[in-house]
Amino acid sequence: MRKLLATAALAVLVTSIPAYAQRGRGGGQAATPKDAAPVDLTGYWVSVVSEDWRYRMITPAKGDHPSVPLNPAGVRLADSWDPAKDEAAGEQCRAYGAAGVMRMPGRLHITWQDDRTLKVEAEAGTQTRLFRFMGNPAQDNFQYGATDIQGLTADMFKPSLQGLSLASWEYAGGRANLPNPRPAKLNLGDLKVVTKYAKPGYLQKNGVPYSADMLQTEYFNRTYEENGDSWLILTQMIEDPTYLRVRYARSTHYKKLPDNSTTWEPEPCSAK
Known about the structure:
The protein has five helices and eleven strands, in the order H-E-H-H-H-E-E-E-H-E-E-E-E-E-E-E. The protein has helices at residues 2-15, 53-56, 72-78, 83-88, 136-143, and strands at 43-47, 107-114, 117-122, 127-133, 164-171, 189-196, 201-204, 208-210, 215-224, 230-239, 248-257. The strands form two sheets. It has a nine-stranded mixed barrel with strand order 1-2-3-4-5-6-9-10-11. Strands 7-8 form a two-stranded antiparallel sheet. A hairpin with a 2-residue loop joins strand 2 (107-114) and strand 3 (117-122). The N and C termini lie far apart (71 Å).
């Protein structure tokens, strides 16, 4: 009986390991995160501004931030926003950092930089984010402050506009048993991205702040609609003990564009 229980437990453990951590068929090398992707997020996407139009399509007035759970320190800083000072200090990209750029109107271009790095380019501010797949344990440890993760260099932990982002796949049903060949239009999971070590920036273009202590967790979900449309739904959860009272959650929607009919028009950062 003990042997049967041990065998069953081992079987459950093996089937729960992500695909890129398992050996390939016939004892080959483990699949890369690119090969193990449960959904295809690559291509061109355009933001569809169906909510918060006056906070995203135009720069709101100073002090206009009713939906952001700022603490008193955050309110004071937001209400003292001066775009001219940002420009003079060369900080006109503060609204285009890791926690702000995804809310900007415009297009995204998502590609694989290599087998373990997903690249997200944004027209807004001509920004680029890199999502590095280091494995679930590495991502979890990183979230709680680990800085000795194999494959990451010390320079990656230095504060930057986009910070350091670690990614992992979350498979539907908690398993990574992907059909082979994989159906072209099927979502078998989501992308999770955790970002730290970003320079201080703005959640809204009118100076609503986040600090260097900001921790952002994002989930990217792709849908396939009956009419042929495909949507990318991004859920952001932002924690910042310096300027926020509670965790701040918001969602942003993008529509898939044909790769062969897309105009790509990157724009520089603007403080106003």
